[in-house]
Amino acid sequence: MRLKDSASQIMQKYSIFFVLLVMILISMTMNDNFFSPGNLTNIGRQLAVATILAYGEMLLIISGMLDLSAGAVLALSGVLSVSFYKTTGSLLGAFLVAIVVAVACNIVNAFFVANCKMPAFIVTLAMTMAARGLALMYTQGQNILQIGDYKVFGQGKLTDVPFLEKMTFLDSVPIPIVFLILITIIIWYVLNHTKFGRSLYAIGGNEEAAIASGINVISSKYKAFIINGILVGIAGILFMSRVNAGLPNGAVGYEMEGLTAAIVGGTSFSGGVGTTLGTLVGSFIIGCLNNIMNLQSVDSYVQQVVKGGIIVAAVLYDLKFKNKKSVKVILGNKEKKNTEKMN
After folding, report:
1. Confidence grade of residue 169 (pLDDT, cut at 50, 70, 90)
2. Which residues, at least 6 apart from 113, have a Cβ–Cβ distance to it below 8 Å?
3. Domain boundaries along the sequence of the chain
4. Helices (H), strands (E): how many in the chain?
């Protein structure tokens, strides 16, 4: 019985890695170009935006919230950033504009969720419409073209950075991948080695218990949304620079890409459960799936159906795991009580 339980625990813990391995093997079998340097670089660039968004969604879901406005806020912060660069020529200023705009939108979300006790689903859905509308109003529904050196964020390599141009060994390292690696390390550290990270798990697991234990729930929710805003702003910069334009209608549905990656990676919609590594692997699985479907020329509508099925399957698996865990706890408590009575 113990051996069976151990095998079940190992499967629950490492199943996501097994799925990724199977996905890679299938992709290699279906298309010889999957492991070509060009295709892998393309996957990396695409994964950077989706994974960064997924980290923000993961933080919010762990704490019992979510963000449906990520794609729209990404578009708003991105087009304002591109516009600022075209006006001033400052890459640093454009970078900061995207961050400030996305954080401001998320602070508004945090206010209604944390202070007004409104459901995050409703608040962020409203922000989706507001942010998208503002982006379209600002640009009059037109794309911002000819963005010049702004594209270095999403298309450049490390040797494009002024003080690194002579380091030729870095010529094959795309800048979006560097952003992704740095953000992954930071998010992992925040979740695993800070008081704030532990508070998110506590709030998502049981908010009333978290309040009773002295955790400032409102402050933690604000911080979670602010970090999400920073990540959405960076994703906006990478997205607009990768497509080489400011698109007010861009990134539609990207919040679902982030949510899917987080859920597939083991983040529980019930709150209190999720890991940085799991979300990263979940994003790789979705990225590999998207890439192989594109290489095989699968219809885009079919791709949406497949992704929807993956979300349902991941949530069902999460619910099944939760129910098993609850049954084990209940049975364990009963056995303990029976033992105490006999003694």
Report:
1. low
2. 65, 119, 120, 123, 221, 225
3. 31-297, 304-343
4. 13, 0
CATH number 1.10.3470 is the correct assignment for the domain at 31-297: yes
Tokens of 90: 């400052």
Separation CA 313–CA 305 (nearest Å): 12
Radius of gyration of the chain (CA): 22
Structure tokens at 177: 């991948």
∠ CA 229-193-232, rounded to 5°: 10
User: What's the gap between Cα 32 and its chain centre?
Assistant: 29
Q: List C-alpha distances in Å: 233 to 63, 102, 115, 138, 312.
A: 21, 5, 24, 17, 28
Dihedral over Cα of 70, 75, 76, 77: its sign? positive
At position 289, the amino acid (one-letter code) is L
Q: What is the distance between the alpha carbons of residues 301 and 307, in angstroms, rounded to a whole number? A: 10
Angle at 276 between CA 238 and CA 17, to 5 degrees: 105
178-222 pLDDT, tens digit each: 999 999 999 999 999 999 999 999 999 999 999 999 999 999 999
Q: Name the residue with tokens 């209940």.
A: 330
Question: What is this structure's pTM?
Answer: 0.87
Closest CA to 202 of 63, 300, 51: 63
Do the beta carbons of residue 33 and residue 295 sit within 8 Å? yes
**How far, in Å, CA of 170 to CA of 154, rounded?**
16
In the block, residue with structure tokens 């497509």: 243
Cα–Cα dist 208/72, whole Å: 32
- Rounded distance between C-alpha atoms, residue 240 and residue 246, angstroms: 6
Greatest Cα pair distance, the chain, in angstroms, is 80
